[in-house]
Batch of 4 targets.
Target 1
Amino acid sequence: MFVHVVKSKIHRVKVTGADLNYIGSITIDQDLMDAANIVEGEKVQIVNNNNGERLETYAIPGPRNSGEITLNGAAARKVAKGDVLILITYAMMDIEEAKNFKPRLLFPNEENNLLK
C-alpha cells in the first residue's frame, strides 16, 4: 500500500508579488526551494492564511536570497501582496517507508522570507 505524506513545508511566507500575465506557477526563492527539497516543476499546495484559499500549482525558482514568493497566472487572483502562505509538497511512498520518513519543515523569517 502507498500513502501520500508531507515531503516538505515552508511555513508562513509572505507573498511578494502576483503576476496575472505570467503563464502560471509559483516563483519561490531558490534558497528556500533547496532547503525544502523542492525541485523545479514540482507540484506545490498553497494555503493562504489570509483568505482561506487552497490551490495547487508548480514551483519555479526565483533569485537566491531574494525572499521572492510570487503567484503567477490565474493563481495571482487568489492572493494579495503581503498575504501569509504555507507551501506544502507531498510524496507517495509505501507505508513502512512513511513510518520513518521525516519531512523538511522550514520556518523562514516572516518579515523577509529568508532563512534564519
Note: The mean pLDDT is 97.
Target 2
Amino acid sequence: MLILGLILTFTAKIWLNIIVFVGCLLYLLACRVSFKKMGIALLIAFPFALGSWLSFISFSHSYTRAWLYATRIYTYFSLGALVTLCYSLKTVLLSLHQHFRLSNTFVYGILTAVGMIQNVKAQIKKIRIAANMHNQTLNWWNPMLYLKIIVSCLNWSDNLAVAMTLQGFSNDYPRTETYHDSISIFQWGLLILLALVCGGLAFF
C-alpha cells in the first residue's frame, strides 16, 4: 500500500490511478468484503474527490489535473481499504509491532481504547439517564456531557494503568510474544512484482 501510494504520488497518469483502483476493488471482492462496507468507503471518499475536482476546475481550469487528483483520492482510499477492510485492527497493530518495532505502549493502548468503546457508549447512556433524573437534558451539543465523559475516561485510565502494572507490563522490558506474523517468499515476490510493474507503467 505504501509503495504503490508513493509511486502514484509522483506520477500524473489518470489511467494508472484507475487501474490501481480497479485492482484494489477486485482484491476486496476476492477477500469477500461486503458490498455495504465497500459502498460506505466509496461514499466517504466522494466529498474529498469532489472537492479536489471542483477546486482544480475553479482555480486552474484544467480538467486533466482535476480528474487526476480526483481519481488519485479514490485510489488512496481503495489502497487504505485493503488494510482496514481485509484485516482486523488487532492484526494490523500486532503485525506493525513485529515488523516495524511499533511501541508496546502504543499498540496495547490503542487496542485497549478500542476494546472500551462499548463501555464508553454504556457510560454515556448512564450519564444521560442520571441527568434526566435531575430534570436535565444532556444533548450531544452540550459541553457538560463531554466533560462528564472525560472525567469517566480519566478514572478508567488510572485503573487501566494500575492493572497493566500489576500484570507486569513495562515498555522498557522485553515481553513474551504470542503473535507471530510470518511473511512468505511468495508475498515478498508479489510485492516486488507489483512495485516493478506499477513503477514501470508510471515512469516509462
Note: The chain has two domains: 2-88+191-203, 104-166.
Target 3
Amino acid sequence: MYGKASAPEYRGPLGELSVNTSLEEVLAKAVEEMRLAEQGGKSLELAHAALAAAEASRRLGRVEEAEQAWQDSFRAAERAGDRGAMAWAVWSGGTLARQRGDLALARRRLAEAAELAEKGDDIVARGYSLAGLAETGRIQGDYEAVGRLHEQLLAEARRRGEARHTVWALEGIAQMHRNTGSFDTALAMFEEAAQIARDAGDDRGRAWALRGMADVRSAQGEPERALALLTEAELLCREVQLVGALAYNHKMRGNVLYRAGRYAQAEEVYRGALAEFRAMGEPRGEALSRLGLVKAEARQGRPAASTAADLDALERALGDIGLQRAGDMIAQARAELGVPAPDAVPAP
C-alpha cells in the first residue's frame, strides 16, 4: 500500500508544499523564504529555500536561474555544515546538467550527491541521487549498466511504500522495455505507474506515465487512443506548470501523428515542440524534435539531399549529447526514408 506522494526536495519551511503545488507558487514562496533566511542569517533555511527555487526554476525551463539557485543552496548548506542539504543541492545541479544535455557532468554531480547523502545519513537524498544516475544512464542508452539499478530502486521503493519513487522506477523500466520492443510489458508497467500516481495524488508522475502509455499505444497502431492519453497528460502538465514535461508531451504527439501518416500535422507539432525546447535550453528534446521534423518534411517531398544533410548533423548532435544509440536512431531514420549513409556506395 502506498501513501500520498510527497516532495522531499521542498524542505524546511517549504515542506508543507505538495508535489502538485504550481511551480510559480513554489518559486514565489522560495524567494520569500530565501529573503527571510538571509535577513536572519539562517544558512540551513537558506539552503532549503534555494533548493526549492532551483527545482521550480528548472522545471519551468529557466535554466540560468536554476543554475544560480542550486549553487546558492550548496554554499548555504556548506556554511551550515549539513551534508544532507549539500547532497540535495548537488542532486539538483546534476538533474539540471542532464536537462541541459551534459550527461557526463550530470553523472559526476549525481555520484557526488549520492556520496554526500551517504556521509550525511540522508537516505532519501541518496535514493534520489542514485535514481538520477540510473535515469541518466537510461537516457544515454546504457541499459545493461543501469537496468539492475532501476530494479533495485523499484524494490526499495515498493518496500517503503514510496509512491513517487515507485512510479519513477516503473516508468524507467517500462521505457527500456518499450525501446527494446517489449510493448506489452512496457504498457503494463506504464499503466501500473499511472494508477499508483493517481492514487497517491502525483500529477507529475501520472503525466509522464500517460505519455509512456500513449507512446506504446501508438506503436501498437492505436493513434486515437494515444492522442487521448496525451491530451489527458497535457492538462496535468499545464495545471502544475511542467514546462519540460509539456514539451516532451508535444514531441510525442508529433511522433503519434507521424506514425499515423498525418505528416503535415506532425510537422506543425514538431515545430512547436522544437521552439519549446529551445526556449528552455534542452538540447536532447531539441534534437529529437528536429529529427521528427526532418522525417515529417521528407515524407512531404523535401529534397533527399537536404534530408541527408540534416540527418548527418543530427547524428553528430545526438552523439555530442552522449546518446549511445544515436547511430542506430539515425540509421533507422535513413532506412525509413531511403536516404543513404554518408559513406554508402551507390549501387551500380
Note: The first helix runs from residue 23 to 40.
Target 4
Amino acid sequence: MSPRWEPDLDVRRGNHVIHNLHAHLVFVTKYRREVFDDDMLTRCEEVMRDVCEKFEAEMKEFNGEGDHVHLLIHYPPKIALSKLVNSLKGVSSRYLRAEYTGRINRIGMGSVFWAPSYFVGSCGGAPLSIVKDYIENQKRPA
C-alpha cells in the first residue's frame, strides 16, 4: 500500500502566491512591569486573536508571563508585519487599559502599556544552511 499524501495545511494559496509565513513575536510591558495575571493574559489573547483575524492572519500560539507575551503568527505576504504589530499593540493596549484600569494604575505604568520595541523572528521551513545550499546548487542559465 502506498503512503497517502497529506496536504500541508499551513501552506496557503492566493491569486498569485503560495506562502507559508510564520513569525514569533514578543511584546514587553512598559518598564517590564509585572501587570499580567491569568485573567488578563486570557483577555489579551482574545483581543489579539481578533486583530489577527482582521488582518487575515492566524494566531497559532499565545502565552505570557507577568511582564511579556509571546505570539506565533501565521500571516499572508500582503501584510506588512510592522503594521500588524502596531495594531496588535495598539488595540490590546486600549482594551486592557479600559478593562483593567484599577490594576494598571496600582502598578504605576503611566499612560503607556507596551514598551516601544518588540522582538520578531521568522519561523518554519528548512534551516537557513539548507536553503543556502539549495540556492547555491541551482543551475545557472547557459
Note: The two ends are 42 Å apart (CA to CA).
